[in-house]
Design brief:
This protein has 3 helices and 5 strands. It is α+β, with helices and mostly antiparallel strands. The protein has a 5-stranded antiparallel beta sheet, covered by helices on one side. Strand 1 and strand 2 form a beta hairpin. The protein is globular.
């Protein structure tokens, strides 16, 4: 069952086209757009169109949509030209991990060397 959009959620407003974003891909269940504060030459966010506060709650409630987010992240990497050289998919979960928008989302990062462990 889909979670209802939240009136105070930035990403729900982007899905509803109330706030502009530079969209790079859209599917029936996901939206992918450029991060406004990129941390790599390629930095695209892939979000589900339904609201869940983090990746774990999305996966528990709607595993198919969680899979859609991952599939679209791979498509973004291919279309952005970073699939062959390597890219990272990051889900920050909770404020202690750096999550600032509490709507599940994947960061697709690439186009530069990505060290391990991350900082």
């Amino acid at each position: 069952m889909a979670a209802e959009p939240q009136a105070d959620c930035l990403f729900c407003k982007i899905v509803a086209k109330e706030i502009p974003a530079t969209v790079v891909r859209e599917s029936e269940t996901t939206l992918a757009f450029r991060d406004i504060n990129p941390q790599a030459p390629t930095h695209v966010l892939v979000i589900p169109k339904v609201h869940h506060p983090d990746a774990a709650s999305l996966a528990a409630a709607e595993p198919q949509i969680a899979a859609d987010v991952l599939r679209e992240a791979g498509e973004v990497a291919f279309e952005e030209g970073v699939a062959e050289s390597g890219y990272r998919i990051v889900f920050n979960t909770g404020s202690g991990a750096g999550q600032t928008v509490f709507h599940a989302h994947a960061h697709v990062l690439g186009g530069r060397g990505l060290t391990w462990p991350p900082g």
